[in-house]
């Protein structure tokens, strides 16, 4: 009989039952992929992270991410959760580490913050696909339920990635964002066409205090109807804001993004984008976390 440690962590918050919950599993190096999928399905959070020993000299730890339905290359809030658990339960000291993921080997920092910790996750270089053509953009707006008066035509509907691509959809008014009731089956069909499973409508209108942006995330093609607070999208969002001149250009951009109001799980994260010759080159996110519970699982 094998025993693994299972944790549930709320990421991008310091209050339990808010932010984005993730499962974290320690001691699962003997588990096969099928068993990992079963555990992720049983926990039933949008993602569960399995923290595994390194497989080579180019990284310090390997992390695999599973939704209740499938493995994904990278997950922001589960990365924060995994390294927060490494610090508070695994005895890992503050410092800079390299995690091997499905998106490659990426730096992660465990930062001491008073008596607690923050996690900084460096994402991959921003990659911009061409803006969606008129017909596909119309299909995305329609599937999300956005009327013409609420579509943010000041910037394109576009797929952007820093390791795990998302469809960024500007929205003109916060009230329209909050009222969205997407056609999930239509989004699933569009995912097959676009080769991208996550849709992030966002607005610069009336964000939560201290934040620049407000957003929502829908990814029904991978079993996530709505994700409360999404780390993997805010890196691409920061690069997108710069690329389309929605914020002033300088040497860097620092901002806070908020998400989760519509699902009753408010959370926030800080985004850092470094520029070279006026273009976004290096993206990272910083997040808080709180441990909800831990348990031993005998298999």
UniProtKB/TrEMBL annotation:
Family: Belongs to the PhzF family.
Entry-linked SUPFAM superfamilies: Diaminopimelate epimerase-like (SSF54506)
MF annotations from Gene Ontology: isomerase activity
Annotated catalytic residues: 47
Gene source species: Aminomonas paucivorans DSM 12260
Listed InterPro entries: Phenazine_PhzF-like (IPR003719)
UniProt-listed Gene3D superfamilies: Diaminopimelate Epimerase, Chain A, domain 1
Name of this protein: Phenazine biosynthesis protein PhzF family
Key word Membrane present: no
Gene Ontology CC: cytoplasm
Keyword field: Isomerase
Keyword Protein biosynthesis in record: no
